[in-house]
Amino acid sequence: MHGLPQYQDDRLLVGSATADDAGVFKIDDERALVQTTDFFTPIVDDPVLYGRIAAANSLSDVYAMGGRPITALAIAGMPTESVDQDTIRSIFQGGAEMCVEAKCSLLGGHTIKNPEPIYGLAVTGIVHPERYLANAHARPGEHLVLTKPLGSGIISTGIKRGQCSSDLAATASMLMATLNHPGATLAERGLIRCCTDVTGFGLGGHLIELCNGSCVSAEIDASLLPLMSPEVLDLIDAGCVPGGSHKNLDHTAPHTSFASNVTDAQKLIFADAQTSGGLLLSVPDENLAAVMETLEETSAPCAVIIGKTIPRQAFAVHVTHSS
Asked: Which residues contact 312 (CB under 8 A, 6 or more apart)?
């Protein structure tokens, strides 16, 4: 979007300038629209599960802005010569199921022919114009909290190579198909102002965007990063690291300082490209207990403090290893 002409409207609360998860546009003093779109190619073999994960990933951007999804349109590209109608319908079935779970009306969509399958949603949500969450709202001294464990990129590569256990594949699939709805509850209760979801750029990339948007830096402890399973480390040793995660590490390197005792595996976990990952919250100290209680109440997969925000430094992120 950089360099493209932009219509200026005072009602635009969040645009593309701060690399946020979605745009926010004020309707009146009580309502603002949250809008986003996302889609990707299959990462699992089961078509219903693929549809569920892709839909959860699309809906996540609205939750990351503190909104609740209200409508969605399906976006799909399908190679009709090689993918039969039953499989296509199953993908759409999974996406529709996730919209029902999110209490979001699926209004229709558009499908084109494409050399490989793609599926996702364009989602519209609603948020109070004074309660939306954004990358620009973090302040020094806040706690950084993750709501899903890491490792889905590495696990997905392990699945494709036949090196991932069936138990871990099932765990990862369940987590990727879990909605990030706690973000909306936290915003409605006024407990946080800054949030992003951890997706394709990995924890490191999205944390850097948050730091740049808020003009802060962050200190995180690599030993505190939650994993979907210790098996993730075995998959790293086996070389099951996607190319996107290596690219993420290269991209984050100029903006990150790593302590000398941070391992190569921890660096790859920091950079691992996530699919439908969790929320990364910046939590004021006085609200930490209430946030942790809310995450438990809303059944967040995890609630792990991984570090804190600090005044802006030369590097956006400092990664340490305490144990």
From this structure: 211, 215, 216, 217
- Domain with 75 in it: 12-127
Element holding 108 (H helix, E strand): strand 105-113
For 119-155, give the DSSP string.
EEEEEEEEE-TTT---GGG--TTPEEEESS-B-HHHH
CA-CA distances (angstroms) from residue 192 to 187, 246, 289?
6, 32, 12
Residues 208 and 297 both lie in one domain: yes
Are residue 213 and residue 279 in the same domain, yes or no?
A: yes
Task: Report yes or no: 199 and 177 within 8 Å, Cβ to Cβ.
Answer: no
Q: Is 12 exposed, middle or buried (0-12, 13-18, 19+ CB in 10 A)?
A: middle
CB 20 within 8 A of CB 83: no
Q: In this predicted model, what pLDDT tens digit does every residue of 152-208 receive, in sequence order?
A: 999 999 999 999 999 999 999 999 999 999 999 999 999 999 999 999 999 999 999
Q: What is the CATH number of the domain that holds 61?
A: 3.30.1330.10
Whether pTM > 0.90 for this model: the answer is: yes
- Specify the DSSP element, H or E, that contains 206: helix 202-214
**Tokens describing residue 176:** 């990727």
Long-range contacts of 246-250, Cβ-Cβ distance < 8 Å, separation of 24 or more: 246/271, 248/201, 248/202, 248/204, 248/205, 248/272, 248/273, 249/202, 249/204
Determine the residue type at 174: M
pLDDT digits (tens, 9 = 90+) for 285-311: 999 999 999 999 999 999 999 999 999
Range 167-170 contact pairs with CB under 8 angstroms and sequence separation of 24 or more: 168/228, 168/229, 168/231, 168/232
Cα 301 to chain center, whole Å? Answer: 13
Q: Looking at 102, 127, 152, which one is the last position of a domain? A: 127
Measured N-to-C along each axis, helices 47-64 and 166-176 cross at an angle, to the nearest 10 degrees, of: 40
The encoded tokens of residue 215 equal: 């003009």
